[in-house]
Amino acid sequence: MGNRITKAVIPAAGLGTRFLPATKAMPKEMLPVVDKPAIQYVVEEAVSAGLNDVLMITGRNKNALENHFDRMTELEATLEQKGDFQRLKKVEYSNHLADMHYVRQGDPRGLGHAVLRARMHVGNEPFAVLLGDDLIDARDVLLSRMLEVQASRGATVIALMEVDPASSHMYGIATVEPTEDDDVVRIMGLEEKPVQGTAKSNLAIIGRYVLQPEIFEVLERTPPGKGNEIQLTDALLKLANNNIAGGVYGVVFRGRRYDTGDRVDYIKAIVQLAVERDDLGPELRPWLQSFASTLD
């Protein structure tokens, strides 16, 4: 149990330009998904998997992230005076979710650089990385399974998901070989956003990683790649090709994933999650059915 992974790193320094002007003064991670900011879903997922030590990699104008996971005494006092204990409980919940830490990325030099900024906090132990654009349905197991695979194989583990081949150019794509476990594959190759029509598979990397600490040394030596950024995918490929620290394995996820990094998918995520809630679904579902019947 002494080797159990407890640390999660959440890169959150992006500008969120696809959601302008909403993100002009508010971090994209604070955009609400129904009635919780997207970032809270990610932290809750980490905590549910036993990762209570969370480091967020932030940037300028991201103070709202820290505020959200801190106390807001004036609001709490007002709700208590009103006797609105249901909302007070929701407000206080995020205060105690995890042991939260923050560090700024500085220059926006890519995901690999953001992960590298976690080195001093993480130290020489495995850790998880969760990207805020990917929300994994709490009813489906992914991160816990990845932690199991890391513990049993002593290797880096990434999350994979089958995507439409026509959209493969939007992802990091993995070529793999099977293992004795139906949901686990060994990574043989990785390519970040291949030219459309050239992808060697439709297994895409989604935003969950369990990394060996050797990734930091590799990232230090990784030159800028696609977009002139330090790509985490390039460093993972070096781990896989050279079998560093056990190589790289993938867990193929077949559950529900919500992409909040794209405007249309963000709206879909809100609708999908809302219709399944006991407090919103009964009213929302018949309205959606009625509304859908009016569309061509």
TrEMBL record:
Hydrolase in keyword set: no
Name of the protein this chain belongs to: UTP--glucose-1-phosphate uridylyltransferase
CDD domains, A to Z: UGPase_prokaryotic
Pfam family for this entry, one: NTP_transferase
Family: Belongs to the UDPGP type 2 family.
UniProt organism field: Antiquaquibacter oligotrophicus
Transmembrane segments: none
EC number(s) per entry: 2.7.7.9
InterPro entries, per database record: GalU_uridylyltTrfase_bac/arc, NTP_transferase_dom, Nucleotide-diphossugar_trans
UniProt keyword terms in alphabetical order: Nucleotidyltransferase, Transferase
GO molecular function: UTP:glucose-1-phosphate uridylyltransferase activity
